Each structure stands twice: as structure tokens, then as C-alpha cells.
Amino acid sequence: MTHVAMTIAGSDSGGGAGIQADLKTFQELGVFGTSAITAVTAQNTLGVHGVWPLGGEAVTAQTDAVFGDFEVSAVKTGMLFSAEIIRAVARSLEEADRPALVVDPVMIAKGGANLLQQEAVDALAKELIPLAAVITPNIPEAEVLTGMDIRSESDMEKAGRSLLGMGARAVIVKGGHRTDERRASDLYMDRDGSRMVLSSERIHTKDTHGTGCTFSAALTAFLAAGQTLPDAAEGAKRFIQAAISDGLGIGSGHGPTNHWAYHRIGGMSAKGAITVES
Ligand SMILES: Nc1ncnc2c1ncn2[C@@H]1O[C@H](COP(=O)(O)OP(=O)(O)OP(=O)(O)O)[C@@H](O)[C@H]1O
Ligand SMILES: Cc1ncc(COP(=O)(O)O)c(N)n1
User: Fold this and answer.
1) What are the backbone dihedrals phi and psi of residue 268, each rounded to the nearest 5 degrees, phi first?
2) Is the backbone of residue 47 left (phi > 0), alpha (psi -120 to 50) or beta?
3) Is residue 70 helix, strand or coil?
4) Quick check: CB of 10 below 6 Å from ligand 2?
5) How many domains does the chain have?
6) How many Cα atoms occupy the beta-carbon half-sphere of 108 within 13 Å?
7) Fewer CB within a 10 Å sphere, N or C end of the chain?
8) What pLDDT, on the 0 to 100 scale, is given for residue 223?
9) Is 212 known to be catalytic?
């Protein structure tokens, strides 16, 4: 059976993040990838050189075309840029046949470029997050959404609880930005009371462009293929660990991760690098 997944996100001309990272990840994980582009970015490993958002109507036309023809099992959102696009996406998801929704609340690119307008944060919180099966903020995004300072694992847990209160069924607070920690640890929490810490050795590399997109795309692909949320979260952590650990060394800035690595290294050897604690 062919499983169909969809990404609603921005285009990264450099190919390491956004729509391009998502489709590469879907392909590697054996699900058929479809997309709705929200914005075009002129981007490479050195930064974002320009952003051209689409209007809500153009985004709705893409989601209507895909939902009107395919049975989409899981959808992820990435860069949404404006409140107008967020509202268009929320409306089309409400009308669709309830695909599992992964919301990666992308706000700021590594080099500092704004990928979400300040005034759109409220629409993201009120209109999209309540529809999500899982949201995957990094620490700065979780801080913006909750208004909390996050420094420790217990802060991540408090923020996670506050994010669950915003209506998502589960949350993964990603710990990639806690660079003073020896391990890269992400906290998974859901409304049924499950909690786990997905942890891996922290790899010392500058090539981490698109880690967040790739992680959430892998999560979406595993959900599209029918895995449970906790299993999909663990699979996504294995996928990103392999992708970071086997870097490609391309571009002169923050290079992309290696979307081939999970299968090249083999899912099983990536397995040893991950620990899961409840
Ligand atoms: N240096 C690293 N070594 C191992 N895993 C990492 C590293 N950096 C990030 N990760 C993992 O990558 C995934 C994405 O986390 P991160 O917090 O970096 O997301 P993000 O901020 O959305 O991505 P980006 O920094 O690219 O915008 C998480 O599973 C995190 O643990
Ligand atoms: C089009 C686009 N979308 C998202 C990101 C953030 O990337 P990430 O947080 O995965 O590094 C990006 N740089 N460009």
C-alpha cells in the first residue's frame, strides 16, 4: 500500500531545509511526498537572501488540489510566514479527512532571518496548534509560544505541559539548542500522560541546516506509514541522528544534513546511538 504524506512549507533553494528537506525525507522513508509551497526563499548554507511569500489563496489552491485527489495520511507544516497563510492552512485541514498533523512552528532561520511574522504567532497558537497531533518546537520557539525561559530539562517539561494546554495531542520540545549539554535530548509528552526523553550523542559539526525540518518530516513519514506517535518520534530521532552524524561537507556555511544516511548507515546502527528514557 502506498502511503501519502504532505508538507506545507517554504522552499529552500539550497535544498537542506524546507520543502526540499521534507520531500527527500519522505522519499527515503518510503512514503509518497506531496507539497504546498507557502513562500519561496533564496537561501544557501550562508543564509537567507530573500523571502517571497504566497497569498492564502495560492496555498489553498495547492492543498485543495492535493486533498481533492489523494488520501493523505499525514501532513506537516513548516515555514508558514503570515497569519493569512496560517488561516488558509487551518481551514483546509479542517475540511480535509483528518490527516495526522505535525506542526513544526518554524520562526527564525539559523542566520536570524524571520520565517514567521511576529503578528502571526497568535494565529499559529490559536488556529493551528489545536489541530495538531504533535508539535515540535525548538527551545527558542517553545519560549516564544509559552513566554517561559527554558534552561533545564525541568523547564522543558513545564513548557511542554503549557504547550499541551494549547490543544495539541502531543509535544516534542527539541533540545538541539542546549549546546552546553553533552547529549542532544528531546522531551516527548502527550495528553495520555506518556513522557519520554529521546537522547543521542551530540555531534560537533556546523552542518546542522535543516535539522528541525528533517526531524519533523521523518516524524510525519512514520505517522503516514501507520506508526504510533511514540514510535514515530523515536524513529525520527534515529533518522536525524544518522543524517547529522554522516555529514556531506557541502556549502561553505552551515551545511545540510545527509538525507541518505539513515539507509546508508542502516537504521540498526543508528539505533545504538539513541537512548529512550521514560
Ligand atoms: N549537534 C547535534 N547532534 C545531535 N543531534 C542534534 C544536534 N543538533 C540538533 N540535534 C537534534 O536535531 C533535532 C532538531 O533539533 P533542533 O533543536 O536543532 O531543531 P531546530 O532548531 O528546529 O533546527 P535548526 O537549528 O536547524 O533550526 C533534534 O532531534 C535534536 O536533538
Ligand atoms: C524554507 C525554510 N524552512 C525552514 C527553515 C528552518 O530550518 P530548520 O529549522 O529545519 O533548520 C529554513 N531555513 N528555510
Assistant:
1) -70, -40
2) left
3) coil
4) yes
5) 1
6) 12
7) N
8) 98
9) yes
Q: Which helix (H) or strand (E) is 103 found in, with range?
A: strand 100-103
CA of 104, closest atom in ligand 1: 22
pLDDT tens figures, 59-86: 999 999 999 999 999 999 999 999 999 9
Residue 211 annotated to the active site: yes
**The one-letter amino acid at 142:** A
Q: Which of 211, 217, 212 is nearest to 22 (CA)?
A: 217
Pocket test for ligand 2, best of 13, 174, 213, 219 (most atoms within 8 A of CB): 213
User: What is the b/e burial string over 225-234, where b = at least 16 CB atoms within 10 angstroms of the residue's CB?
Assistant: bebebbebbb
Among 208, 209, 239, 246, name the best residue to mutate to test ligand 1's pocket (greatest count of ligand atoms within 8 A of Cβ): 208
How far is the C-alpha of 254 from the C-alpha of 186, rounded, in Å? Answer: 22
Supply the CATH number for residue 39's domain. 3.40.1190.20
Residue showing cell 539513541 = 274
Distances from the Cα of 192 to the Cα of 156, 195, 228, angstroms: 18, 9, 13
CB 141 within 8 A of CB 168: no
Predicted local distance difference test score (pLDDT) of residue 205: 95
ipTM of the complex: 0.97
Q: What is the mean pLDDT of residues 265-276?
A: 72
CB atoms within 10 A of CB 50: 10
